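Supplementary Methods. Inverse-folding protocol.

Structures were first reduced to a discrete structure-token string of length 233. This string, shown here, constituted the complete conditioning input.
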């Protein structure tokens, strides 16, 4: 089975060591076993976890652009943050989610996989933490997968970034720029959207949306969540 997954990564020019294969295999089992208890993944087969979660997360490595301090907003069961930490030992990753049970699962997984020195799980709300000195403008990159629509995600994410840092948002085949409004929101919070990256993973259409932070985010952002939802940028 290990060779099957090594071949899968190799197909996309992604090398993976035996140690990383073994850690991802253990993490896949943790996700699979937890799924009937809470929604850490909607994927029921371990083989699909490798494609839809791990391979997709690995694709981000090509686009981190030297980022080392990363926050994964709306991490859920740890995707893409935990696979990124397994695949690149140089990354320092914060996993953020507002649901305590999901962060408890992430904490357990981090301990099981020996990642405690490089991965920090936090239960909290992005719009609150982004207002604090400990988190505002502290990260090289924000990564997020299907956490919110583009306008909301941009407002929540850019305050965490240093100037020059980037939001990397993972979107599926339903991505519609007119609905998501990444570029419109970016202008309010000190950012500029880049050309979306379109790619295929095992016959599934994917998009990576990148927003670069070009100036300091005005202090009023992010707004309270109710206001973000009621009056998107």
């Amino acid at each position: 089975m290990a060779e099957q997954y090594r071949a899968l990564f190799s197909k996309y020019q992604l090398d993976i060591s035996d140690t990383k294969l073994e850690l991802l295999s253990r993490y896949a089992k943790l996700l699979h076993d937890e799924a009937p208890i809470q929604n850490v993944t909607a994927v029921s087969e371990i083989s699909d976890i490798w494609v839809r979660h791990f391979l997709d997360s690995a694709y981000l490595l090509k686009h981190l652009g030297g980022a080392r301090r990363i926050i994964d907003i709306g991490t859920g069961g740890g995707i893409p943050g935990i696979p990124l930490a397994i695949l690149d030992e140089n990354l320092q990753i914060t996993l953020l989610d507002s649901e305590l049970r999901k962060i408890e699962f992430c904490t357990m997984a981090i301990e099981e996989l020996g990642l405690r020195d490089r991965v920090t799980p936090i239960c909290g709300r992005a719009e609150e933490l982004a207002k604090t000195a400990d988190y505002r403008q502290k990260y090289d990159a924000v990564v997020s997968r299907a956490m919110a629509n583009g306008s909301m995600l941009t407002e929540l994410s850019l305050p965490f970034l240093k100037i020059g840092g980037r939001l990397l948002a993972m979107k599926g085949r339903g991505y519609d720029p007119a609905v998501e409004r990444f570029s419109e929101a970016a202008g309010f919070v000190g950012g500029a959207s880049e050309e979306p990256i379109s790619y295929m993973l095992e016959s599934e259409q994917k998009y990576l949306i990148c927003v670069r932070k070009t100036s300091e985010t005005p202090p009023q952002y992010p707004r309270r969540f109710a206001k973000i939802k009621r009056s998107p940028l």
